[in-house]
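Recall from the previous chapter that SMILES is a line notation for molecules. Here it describes glutathione.
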Amino acid sequence: MIFHASALSSYSAKVRVVLCVKGLDFEERAPAQGYRSPEYRAVVPMGTLPAIQIGDWVLSESEVINEYLEERYPAPAMLPQDPEQRARVRFLCRFHDLHLEPKVRALFGQVKPAHRNPETVLALRTDIEARLGQLAGWAQPQPFLLTPSISLADCGFLVTVPLAAAVLAACGQSLMLPTVLAHWLSVASAHPPVDRALAPWRAATQAWLSS
Ligand SMILES: N[C@@H](CCC(=O)N[C@@H](CS)C(=O)NCC(=O)O)C(=O)O
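With both inputs in hand, we obtain:
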């Protein structure tokens, strides 16, 4: 399996967590000419990262990829058996992609002091903290967000929550993380496959923010 990804890409990191938790063999490839290049689009028509490729078969969209990996490689299970629990896991995945990650991404343009608008940073911080407050209300860490072993619900937040803290810090603001989420984050990030999956993303993010 070819994993089209880049070290700095949050959505790539979200899928890399599943690949590592499931112990799958994959060859990670960053688009040589960038993800906007015609060369990359010739292989991955969506032109986004991540994508997976098996022979001529190509799949984009991180959540669809994670669901495919879960169905194709069911062990260890990353969705609960119970339909209501599965739906809750899927709800948190969707909540991450639609309501938290875009607010964190909106901070990227504020990192350079010359381009920073303190009011914009503060407004985004307020939105992010409100979303994390909602997440804290729904989470039932056991110790993962909703389950005793890692589920698909954890993957995006394991990237986006520390990213929000790091980008806000680079913008001169701190993030108030609800205690329940701070505890979940320290336990879940230390899970060995998660730690392995996130190592390239952590290094690239640190290099970006300190550059
Ligand atoms: N909804 C997509 C979002 C992926 C995404 O935005 N990836 C970024 C890199 S983290 C990207 O490829 N951006 C390029 C673009 O959107 O043109 C997913 O879940 O895979």
